[in-house]
Write a structure and sequence with these properties.
By secondary structure, the chain is α+β, with helices and mostly antiparallel strands. Helix content is 50%, strand content 12%.
Length: 425
């Protein structure tokens, strides 16, 4: 008989507040890795699903994409009520958008190839000088804040998005709008970020706010793509308006979804930058090693990705009867891949609850694996490396200037406040 996740732990896994309180979700996932590494959960208000918590099992599911599919049902945790709402407004589809992470097989491969060349190291090397200018600008912005700032609100949210918007051909003056909307899409369950501010969690408010923010982003990119059809430029939006699949233009929903995915992807880099600074402030010995040049920046970035793991889960559905780690999975079953759990698996990571910037090897799972391996992983890594080069070259001292806080979110989650005071050269 398959193991059953205790109700309290099952409810923690779906609860956005558990991810804001890192100790609560860490304790729940640690218990599962030890006692029920692949078990069936039946949380309140959600359909049952399997929770995959060990590193190697997560990797197996991701690589077996022919059996464990992304596009057949909801790709992220969605309650029964929200599922019904989405399928009502989409005429039976389990998604508001048509993004790469919701596609499988040939369809996924063909759509991915449309932009993949933009995110390969050779292409990115030509962008490095521009990314450094942006990194320096945002470090200057931090330096000019009077010796104290909220690193999330004043720096981390702005820097990754600035480049993404340039690549999309978005006017710089529209950056505040798109930053707000991406926060509302990914932070719809957080009372400080949601369009519908509902501290008491009014039923349906989160999905309504999410849907409204998605609709506004779609309207924005519909106008931008229409302008690019008339006057193309050397940007990703223009590329997508000209793209064809089997001789036909890319569908409007797919085009708009692509643009929205790029904007929201910048949010995960923001989360990792902010989470890295939080970890360094909590582990001053690691900050000293970094500032002394005793550890390569690339190693610190890999550990930051493992430590923060901004994407907390993805869902898969079984296309046939199968098994994983000796557990029988039935056709149609829903599985949750818990990336924070995989990144704390002591079978793979020595002392996984220690932030160790010299960790090697580091098989972190923040970028996923298999066909859905993150398209922008090289870009995110480059942005972080150049930012840290610029900041560390200026930073004389830094410490806490308040209490940091995480988002309340179970899909993409990271710090929403990192108050610091500092001195720069």
């Amino acid at each position: 008989m398959a193991a059953q996740v205790p109700r309290e732990i099952a409810n923690a896994i779906v609860d956005p507040k558990a991810y804001a309180d890192g100790g609560r979700i860490d304790a729940a996932l640690r218990w599962l890795r030890r006692h029920a590494p692949l078990a069936r959960a039946e949380p309140d208000h959600y359909r049952p699903f399997w929770v995959v918590t060990r590193h190697d099992d997560i990797l197996e599911v991701e690589r077996r994409s022919d059996v464990f599919r992304a596009g057949d049902t909801f790709t992220t945790l969605t309650s029964i009520a929200d599922s019904a709402h989405i399928m009502t407004v989409t005429d039976g589809s389990p998604r508001l958008l048509r993004q790469l992470l919701q596609m499988d097989g040939t369809e996924h491969a063909v759509h991915r190839r449309l932009t993949q060349g933009w995110f390969m190291p050779q292409k990115l090397s030509r962008l490095e000088a521009r990314i450094r200018v942006l990194a320096r600008h945002h470090v200057d912005r931090m330096a000019g804040s009077g010796g104290h700032c909220d690193f999330v609100q004043d720096v981390a949210l702005h820097y990754p998005l600035a480049l993404i918007l340039e690549l999309l051909g978005v006017p710089a003056e529209d950056a505040p709008l798109l930053q707000r909307l991406s926060g509302e899409v990914l932070g719809s369950s957080d009372p400080d970020l949601s369009r519908n501010r509902t501290p008491n969690g009014a039923e349906g408010a989160a999905i309504a706010g999410h849907q409204a923010a998605v609709a506004e982003l779609m309207s924005y990119f519909a106008q931008l793509s229409a302008a690019r059809q008339k006057m193309p430029g050397d940007d990703l939006t223009s590329l997508l308006t000209r793209a064809t699949i089997d001789g036909d233009p890319l569908g409007e929903l797919e085009l708009l979804s692509y643009c929205i995915a790029f904007v929201c992807a910048g949010f995960t880099t923001s989360c990792t930058l902010a989470g890295a600074l939080w970890a360094l402030l909590d582990h001053p010995d690691q900050m000293t090693k970094l500032q002394d040049g005793n550890v390569p920046l690339d190693s610190m970035i890999e550990e930051s990705l493992r430590w923060v793991t901004p994407v907390k889960h993805l869902m898969r559905s079984a296309a046939a009867d199968t098994e994983v780690a000796g557990v029988k999975i039935a056709e149609g079953d829903w599985l949750l891949l818990s990336f924070p759990s995989g990144n704390r698996d002591d079978r793979v990571f020595d002392e996984p609850f220690r932030f160790n910037i010299a960790r090697t090897p580091n098989r972190q799972q923040a970028f996923g694996a298999g066909p859905h391996l993150c398209l922008g992983r090289h870009l995110g890594h480059l942005q972080m490396r150049l930012f840290w080069e610029e900041l560390l070259g200026r930073l004389a001292a830094i410490e806490w200037d308040g209490v940091p806080r995480n988002m309340e979110a179970n899909y993409v989650c990271g710090p929403k406040s990192v108050p610091v005071r500092f001195k720069v050269h």
